[in-house]
Structure formats: structure tokens, C-alpha cells
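Sync notes, pocket subgroup
Present: LS, DG
LS reminded everyone that the earlier model was apo-only. Rerun requested with magnesium ion included. Inputs:
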Amino acid sequence: MTSSTRSCLAIVLAAGEGTRMKSEKPKVLHEVANRSMLGHVLAALTGAGATQTAVVIGPDREDVEKEARKILPNAQIFVQRERLGTAHAVLSARETLAGTHDDVIIAFGDTPLIRTETFAKLREPLAEGAAVVVMAFEARNPHGYGRLIQVDGQLLAIREHKDATEAERAITLCNGGLMALRGDLALKLLEKVGNDNSKGEYYLTDVVEIARALGERAAIAVVPEEEVHGVNDRAQLAAAERMIQERLREAVMASGVTLVAPETVFLSHDTRLGQDVIVEPHVVFGPGVIVESGAVVHSFSHLEGARIASGAGVGPFARLRPGAAIGPKAKVGNFVEIKNADLGPGAKVSHLTYLGDASVGAEANIGAGTITCNYDGYNKYRTEIGEGAFIGSNSSLVAPISIGKGAFVGSGSVITDSVPADSLALGRGRQILKEGWAVDFRAKAKATKGK
Ligand code: UD1
Ligand code: MG
């Protein structure tokens, strides 16, 4: 049987207190690339073929439960009441472990960089009969990690740093923490774990020796250190962000996107950029952004929850908020904010404008300084602007309102009543002209100066 046809239970340990984060929020809910660390782990496990997922949380952590269910509605939730060690945490999910599973993967909720392929690779030796597979890495600095004790290429045991001898501490091949267990043995192995060690904890790592004592084989899967990067404080969170950004940037460039200065562009886990999209330096993609082929995002733009169609241009200095939909070949220029608004094909909003709760027809031109007044302090109202309409600069459109197809609004207008198609609306004071006034004024002013 190959891994892809084997059933797989994933258990994610997410009971960490994360005191070093100095946060009101539990550690696993802190985000990298705009998704919680727990979310990254759950997504990778699902990709690796987990058929059932259990999340072990700390007491009174409804927020963690909610996040787990948001990503995986049928996740099973178990509570570890006391922190008595990693094996004890896994056994909190005893009820589901007792079921029938070909493979069991144990993952940590604070280790968000593991790739789907790596979880899949961890499962492979199980299909070949191994009882335990340990995720191993060559540590630049092994201090604090469990060391892998091998003889003749056979994994005999994992020794925790605190319990290791000097000779064992010289070993640099370390335990990444994550493990896969053969389903028919998992519960049996875990139940044999004791707490006779320097921390008095039930160590998950003891299952290696326990399996060997039963005549079973323990294997290792070596992964790059980056993937087992665990987050305990804000500096490690920032390091995780840096690594995940590098991956995301590489992936979009490999798919045919130009990032002029990749190190200055920040992507979200779900950012989708089409072929030949160009992203200039210093652009931030919040969650939920889709940019279709050939569109250009100019420098210093901030986008979230927005869709940009083919051939459109956005920025520099544009802000697209959730629900912004920019049509094909439309143009959004500098200092423009757009929220919950559609721009039709070829529409132009070139300068200094706020469009909220609006729709703008094809080829309409929105002049500099146009504001949709969409909010009265209680409710939001819509502005509808027809195809080919022309809104003069510095106009306020007081919603709810509609400006018909091909209509004109004169500059500096405050428009409070809807404008029919092809008409002109002016909503401003009339100009007064006094010829020669300035000559008179200057003469009087000079005569009285300093008196
Ligand atoms: C663990 C491994 C060590 C490995 C290292 C990699 C064990 C005994 N040791 O050590 O070999 O090199 O990870 O980072 O497994 N947790 C609970 N409940 C508990 C204890 C822990 O949910 O009672 C969770 C933690 O929140 C964390 C994970 O399990 O997500 C690992 O626990 P941690 O205390 O960080 O183990 P390490 O000492 O780092
Ligand atoms: Mg740790």
C-alpha cells in the first residue's frame, strides 16, 4: 500500500502556553504570511493526506478550537489539562488514537514551516514497515534539542539535551520534534512511556527505544533545519515570517511574475498573481488578493481582499481594501483608497480619491479628489456611477446616489440628488467676479499699512 491510499490520523500539539511571546493571544494563533501558525500546520497536514485531524489544546482555549475548526470544520479537539510532556499531550487524544489508522503523524502547532511534501516523506517508511519515523535535521547549534543516537545507520534512541552525556551532546543530528507512528502500534508505544528523566515529563521521544525493545524498526527522515524552525518568541516569529516570505516570493517568480525587488514585497499565504504580473518595489499583499495576468502593481501599494483584472494598473500609493474589484485595463492612481467597490473595464480613478460601497461603469472617469460619502455614522450607502460618466475634480457624492450613464458632474460639486444619464449636475456656489477689485484693494491697504 502506498502512502496515498493509507489512512492517516494527524495529531497537532497546540497546548503551548507561549509565555515568551508576552502576548494575550495563544502562541499558535500568531500569524505568519497572514495565517495563524496552527493554520499553516493544519493546511500542510491536509495536503499530506491526513484523513482525520485531532488538535490538542490547553484548558479554556476556545479561541484555538475556533481557529482549528475554521480551517478544518471536522477537526477533533482534545484538551490537555496539565502539561506533563509531549507523550502525555499526544495521549490526550487517546480516544481517537484507539481507532484504526494506518499512519499517525504528530505535529507541533508552533512549527509552521513544514512543507506538505515533508509530512508526506515522513509517512513513507511506515508503508515499508517502520514503527516510528523521526523528523531529523543537522543542527547548526544543537543546544536544547534531542540528539539522535544511531549505530550502524540504525536509530536506537533520542536523548534529550538535559539527559545527554557529553559524548551524546557532540551529536549534531537532532530531533525536529515531529514524528510518524505506525497506527497499529501507536497507542501501545505511547502507553509504555514513563517520566523517569531529568524533567519528570512523559517524553514522546521515548517511543524510539520502546519500539526497538519490541523488535520494531525506527527510521529517520532528514529535513532542512529551516522546516523545523519552532516559534517561542517574537524574534523567532519574525524569522519564520522571513523564511515564509522567501518561499512565497520564489514561488510567484517561478510562476512567471516579475518582482522588481522581491525582498521588499510582502505576500500572503493565499496571494494569487497571474502570469506577467509586475509588482514594483515596496508592495504589501494582505489576505485574499487575486491579480490577473499582465496587471501592474506600482510601488508603495497596500492591497487586501481585492481582485485586479488583466491589464489593470494600481498605484503607486494605492490602498485597495476588501471588496475592491478593479476591471480589465482600469486604472487606479496615487493616493486612491477603494473599498467594496467595482471599477468597470477601462475606468480611471487617477488621483486622491475615496470610493467606498460603489460601482463605477466602464470607461468612467473619476476626477482627482472625488469622495463617495458612504457613511452617516450608522449605516453605509451605495453610489452607482454609470458607464462613461465624468466626475469633475473635488466632488462629494453623498450616497445613496446614482450618476447616470454618460453624465457629467461639475468640479467641486456636492451631489445629493441622483443625476440622470447624459446630464450635467453642478452643486456648488456660483462664481462672483469683480473686475479691478484688486487694484482698489491694494491702494487702500497700502494707505493704511502701519497706521
Ligand atoms: C521537543 C523534543 C526534542 C526536539 C525538540 C524540537 C520531546 C520530549 N522533545 O523538545 O527532542 O529536539 O522538541 O523542537 O518531545 N507540548 C504540549 N504539552 C506538553 C508538552 C509540550 O502540548 O505537555 C507541546 C508544546 O507546546 C510544543 C511541543 O509540544 O508545541 C514540543 O514541546 P517543547 O516543550 O517545546 O519540547 P522541546 O523541549 O522543545
Ligand atoms: Mg520546543
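DG: The mean pLDDT is 97.
LS: Residues 230 surround magnesium ion (ligand 2) (CB under 6 Å).
Action: DG to write up.
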